[in-house]
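Q: What would this chain look like folded?
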Amino acid sequence: MKKSRVIKCLLLICFIVIVYGNSTIAKSTSNHLVRLTEDVQKENGHIEEWTVHMRERLNEQEMKQVALKLQEYLSEWTFTVDLKDEKAVVASHSTGKLRQKIQIVSTGQQDSHYFLLYTVISTDEDRIRAFMKREFVKIHSQFFHESTQVFTCVKGSFDGKIEEVLSNQFSGLINGWKANELEVVSEENFYSLSAYSEHFNQGLPLPSHQMNVQIGLRKNGSGAKTNFVIGTPIITIEY
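A: My prediction, written as C-alpha cells:
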C-alpha cells in the first residue's frame, strides 16, 4: 500500500511539473507578445499581424507517433498527407481572424530526420491575446517539449519615412528595452538590427554572444510610412 501511494504521489508530482512548466512557457510567450504589442503601440505603431512559431526535431519513430496523435487530438482540423515537397503531414485550422498550421517536414536525407512545425497567425489583437491565454498551452503541452524554443513576431507600420522612424520610434523601442545592439544591416530603404535585452528571457545562443530581439524596417512603397517586423528571439517571417 505504501509503495502504491508513493508511486501515485510521484506521478502526481510529475504531472504538476509538466503542466506548470508548459503553463510557464505559455505565460512567458504571451508576455513577450503583449510586451512587443504594447511597446510598439506606445510608439504609435500600427500592428497588422501577430505570429507565434515553434519547431521541434523528431526521429522517424517520434514522427509516426506524432502523426497519429495529431489526427486523434485535432479531429476538427483539416488534414492532408503529402509526401511531396518533403512534407509528410499538414494540418490546418482557421477561426475568424486566427489560423493555425502544423506540419511534419522531412530533411530529405538518407538518415532522414523530421521537424514538427507549428504556426499561429492572427490579424486581430483581442483574438491572439485570448488564444495565448487559453489555447496555446494545450497545443504546446500535447505536441512539444518544455524546452522547445518559441518565436513571436509582430508586423505592421509606423507613420513617417525610415530616417524619421529610426530617430524616433526605433530609438524609443531600443531605449525602452535597454537593448545592446549586436548586428546592424543598413541600406537606403532597409534597416535591420539584432540585439539583446534582459526584458526578454528567451535567448538564442550564438558563438560569441546571445541575442533575443530583432527589428526589421523597410521603406513603404509610398514613402509616407515605414513597414516593420519585430521578433523575439529572432524574426521568423519574411521581411
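Residues 1-23 have pLDDT under 50 and may be disordered.
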